[in-house]
Amino acid sequence: MLGSQTWILRNSTKDLCLFYLPGILAILISKFISGAEGNWTYLLFTWLALGVLDGGHVYSTLWRTYFNKNELLRRPLYYKLAPVLLFLLFALWVYFGGLYLGYVVVYFTIYHNIRQLFGVSKWYQKINKSFDKGSDFFLYAFCLIPVIAFHFRDNVQTPNYYDVSGSLYPDQFLFSLSLLIFSLLFLLYAVKEVIFYFKTKQLQTARILSVIYPGLIYSFAFLFSNNIIEILFPLVVSHGLTYLILIDYSLERTTSNYKKKTLIFVLLAAVVFGSTEFFTESLFVDVSDPTKAIATALFLTPLFCHYLFDAFLWTKDHPESHLIIN
Fold first, then answer.
1. Which ranges of 161-288 would DSSP assign to H, the alpha helix?
2. Where does residue 69 rank: exposed (0-12), middle (13-18), buried (19+ CB within 10 A)?
3. Which one, of 292, 215, 244, 324, lies nearest residue 59 by Cα?
4. What SS3 state is found at 227?
5. pTM here?
6. Long-range contacts of 191-196 (CB under 8 A, 24+ apart)
């Protein structure tokens, strides 16, 4: 059944183990280490997830932009000005109070994460010739409804993040209503796929997994989590690791002199830069306004360059798209 489908890595086992299994393991690990702050296992997994995968994967975009001569020639001014303008924007924003900065960072991150999940789903649809607008709708619904519902929760504690902390409008009725809507949509999706199977005698496993998996990750993170670790682990592990794998895959497809050691450099950059951010970010919480502004801008500039560049690097209109997504 799995083998009858075309998979991104051309092997169902590879796709399942590298794209799907890590997110599920992240859920289990987050439950295992919850409440164990200070324990070496907690520190290790937190560093791997939040440092290496979350913070580190951002820098792998360098290989498709600044380390790619053809890409630099396509948008030379853009790549020169984007980091400078973003740095100035965030430095000034923080210096003058940082109003709503946390919301911008959080919501842009969620949007970026969902767009990757959507892109992977469309990738499967393309290579299997199984385009389905209904799947697109349900994928977005399975991600966005849990995010919306999270705003109505009052039983989960999250740390202050750029002045964003916890739920916005605790309301048990609205949270329960969101759960009901999510459950009904999941049931409706299951019925849709059953009807499709009996009509076509086709079980499009790759496409179906690419829709159900985001629902699993987002429902656990935003509906059933108990703390910040249970929220972040499934999101950052599933996103960061997938991105690193796809960067390596794209480089192999687009670089004539590609060598497998390139992956080592990509991972090394993720470890070094991700670890640097992970271990130093807390040092700039209680510092003077100018220093805090500069430090925050240094952390956020690579992140938002990553968001902006990805907005066109992975689209079907990009010149390298036909080499990667096929």
1. 172-200, 205-219, 228-254, 261-280
2. exposed
3. 244
4. strand
5. 0.94
6. 192/134, 192/138
pLDDT at 292: 87
Q: Cβ(300)–Cβ(90) under 8 Å?
A: yes
Cα separation, 123 vs 128, whole angstroms: 9
- For the cut 80, the answer to whether the pLDDT of residue 215 exceeds it is yes
Looking at residue 287, its pLDDT comes to 55
CA nearest to 193, candidates 134, 235, 139, 146: 134
**What residues have CB less than 8 Å from 88, skipping those under 6 apart?**
297
The pLDDT tens digits of the residues spanning 13-26 come to 999 999 999 999 99
- Mean model confidence pLDDT for the chain: 93
Question: Can you tell me the mean pLDDT for 264-275?
Answer: 97
Which residues are CB-contacts of 199 (< 8 A; sequence separation ≥ 6)? none
Two tokens at 245?
């794998």
Q: What is the CA radius of gyration of the chain?
A: 20
Token reading at 173:
């009725």
> Of all residues in the chain, what percent carry a pLDDT higher than 70?
94
DSSP state for residue 318 in the 8-state scheme: S
Give the per-residue pLDDT at 83: 98
Q: Please check whether residue 117 is in contact with residue 143, taking contact to mean a CB–CB distance below 8 angstroms.
A: yes
Which helix (H) or strand (E) segment is 258 a member of? none
> For residues 109 and 243, what is the distance between their CA atoms, to the nearest angstrom?
14
CA distance 304 to 322: 26
User: pLDDT tens digits, residue range 183-201?
Assistant: 999 999 999 999 999 999 9
